Structure formats: C-alpha cells, structure tokens
C-alpha cells in the first residue's frame, strides 16, 4: 500500500487546469446537456472556420475563460508544453506548405500560405483545448456522466451506462495522473536526475514507475468503488434545464451556422 | 447476536501464496474489535473478505446472516470498509458528491440520498466543507470523508484499515473521536492497526494475526502482555506498569 498523496499533492491537484472547480457562475449553472452540445458545436465550427470566424470564437472563449476567475495565467503556464508543441506544428506548416516565398533566401523556404495555414492550425488547436478546459472546469463529472448516458440511450447496442462511466472515470483520472507524474519527477530531481543528459534514460525512469503507480492507483480506485456497490444502474442525477439554457444553445448553434456559412 | 461469523476461512492468492489460513472468528453486534499483527500478517486480506471484495478459497464468511459468496452486495452494504489510503477511496469531485456516491449505487430515492448525505456530513462535522474539493482537505478531514462515504450506506459494521496511518496528532484525535462516537451510537467497529497505542484504551477485544492465522484472541488485558512475541509493540503504559489512557484525555 502506497502512502496517501497528502496535502502537497492536493495543492498540486489544485494547479491542474483540467479538473472541476466548484463555483456558481453562469457557466456552472448552464444545463450540462445544452453546455455539452454548445461546446461540441463550437469545437466543430472552430475546425471549419477561417480567420474571421476564429476571431469570433476567440471572443467567446475569452468570455468563457473569464468565468474561471484568477486562473488564466495558471492555465497558460500549465499548457506551456502544448503551446510549444503547437508552435512546432506551426513551423513545420510554414516551411512545408507550397506557395509564394516570404524570403528570397532558398535556405529559409517559408511561404505566405504556410504562415497563414500554420497560424490558423495553431489558433484552432489552442481554441479547442481551451474550450474543453472550460467545459471540464465548469462541469461536475457526475453531470457529464448523466448527460452522456442520456445522449447514448437512444443509440441501439450501446451500453450507455458503462460508456458514460468509462469517460467520466477517465476525466477523474487526469488529476491523479498529473499528481503522480509530479511526484515521480520531484523524487527523481531530489536524486539529481538532471545530471543525466540522455532524454531516453530520463523518459525510461519516468514512465516505468509512472505506469506501475497508475496501475496500482487504478486498482485501488476500482476496489474502493466496488466496495461502495458501484455497478451498472444507480440513482439517476436530476438535470434541469430552463428557457434560458435552450435560448443560449440556440444562440450558439445559430452563431456557429453563420460562421460556417460566412 | 453475532453480526460476523467466519468459519474455517482460507484464502490463497492467484500466485499460490497463502493469505489466510483456517480462520475461525465471530464478532458480536456492537462490539469494538482491534485486529493487529505485523505487516503481511493478513489483516487487510481479512477485512476485504468482510466487505465481499475477496472471496474465500475455502470456508465461509457470513455477514448478518448471509454468506458473502452468495450475496456480495449485501456484505458491501452491511460492512462499510474504510481503506488505508483515503486518496484512492474518494471518487467525488466535491465532498457531498463523494458521500452520495454509495447511496446512488444503492439506487435510493434522490431525496433519501440528499437526507443521508446531509445527516452524515453533520455527524462527521464536514457540512461546512460540503462543496469543497476532496483533494484539498487535510489528512484528518479526508479520513473522516472516507468514513462518511461508507456511513451514508448505513452499514451495521464499520471496518477500518489502519485508520491512523499518516495522520498527525490533531488528525488522529479527530478520527478517534468520530470512531468512538459511532461505536457509542451502536455501530460494530472492526479496526486493523499495527500501532495499537492510539486505540489500546478503547478496544474491547484484540485479535492478533500471524502468517494468516489468528495467533491470539481475547480481552486487551490478557492479550497485550504477549504482543511483543508477534511483532507488535505493547502500549507504553503497560511497559511502565501504568493504566491505559485514552488519547482524547
């Protein structure tokens, strides 16, 4: 039995952006089914949109982010590796897309089309990541599970209860995984792993204990849930939606349609 | 009346090693039993049988009149198991959501779930933290939340696996106080611990395990003098010839 994660890990969990934050903002109160449909519509529209559409969606995302009070800097700090990855994708696109060259020097084959396409891709991926982050931060996993159950129910041969439980458990597991990574990294740093410059050595010594720990945690979590009678079939959660929820959903859908058609 | 009846219980793990070896044990309703022994003596394995998480290779475990193999769900409801590590036991995103998890799995009516959640949070003094994120609670609060999570299922027996591990002095006192008050309200308490100092003054019966077997079983004053032989440190007070004293004084 491993020792409990403790308060320090709890504080770390507090910094993890992809986790639910209890609050009473408009977004927290927005009916989960309408919210899920709105966020799916916005994400799909983001994939289809051009620069003007992306600008409009960015305004919506910035407004949504303002509901996560005081956490904007933390979010961007925690997403730094993802942003670095997107920047890498942008560079690849800039140099690999054919079109009119930006520089006369043949050693720098950047094109105007490449910059535009790479920039749009960067922007789209970042917006989708931020949209999912806003959704997870403002929605209880139990509500997500209930909404998914209701969406999957009409589909024949789909075990909606099991599928919804799997998805919500996955969301529940994200903070545990990040906590585990942080603990292992700290423990290894305390034993001077930074002196090892070989990245493969460092990855190997991170992943092996990580997976061992995760499987152990997953086993303990499953056992704890089983001991509290977890199984298929539980009291359904009451979801209530008012006129304002459906009005907001309609507004989002119409907005998305206009962006796609523009 | 016996709430737990264990007859000739043997458990063998999938790798062939013996976890429990011919255990016979009966526990009276309303009693306070401390199960002790060194690491690997089979304490946790025994607790998992009471909750129907593990099944006997041979023998039987009867909880409140029903065998765990025939009706594991009955065992899980009748015996609330509080794990050693509360971090992996907490599944809710808020304190109240975690307490409601068990009653929801029992498919209770929503009003009943809310009533039970409110009552249990009040009993365990967690009501002000109802909308707090569980991972941000202190060690003592987490342990109390883990107890609240199983209490909401209205178990007859509360089985606690090393409830004081990793707790500081105030945390230990908080948890001990709650356990004693639950015992006073009629719950049967079965607790494992290899560090018996904190609970020595309160246990009514002590069961010592060694290599999967019950090595000693009896009232504390008879069992404590022999503890050293089984890898468990006897309470300090006894070593100095003084009476046992509660940690709550």
Structure description:
The complex is a heterodimer of chains A (262) and B (249). Chain A has 262 residues and is mostly helical. Chain A is 71% helix and 0% strand. The longest helix of chain A has 30 residues. Chain A starts with 5 loop residues before the first helix and ends with a helix. Chain B has 249 residues and is of the alpha/beta class. Chain B is built from nine helices and ten strands. Chain B has a six-stranded mixed sheet, sandwiched between helices. In chain B, helix 7 links the parallel strand 7 and strand 8. The radius of gyration of chain B is 18 Å and the shape is globular. Classes of the chains: A mainly alpha (262), B alpha/beta (249). At the A-B interface, helix 1 and helix 10 of A face helix 2, helix 3, helix 4 and helix 6 of B.
If interface size is counted as residues with C-beta under 8 Å from the partner's C-beta, which chains form the largest one?
A: A-B, 37 and 45 residues
Strand tally of chain A? 0
The Rg value of chain B, from CA coordinates, equals: 18 Å
Q: Write the element-wise H/E pattern of chain B from the N-terminal end onward.
A: EEEHEEHEHHHHEHEEEHH
Q: Which whole number gives the mean pLDDT of chain A?
A: 84
What sort of overall outline of chain B do the alpha carbons produce when their principal axes are compared? Answer: globular
Low-confidence stretches of chain A: 1-13
Main pleated-sheet profile of chain B: 6 strands, mixed
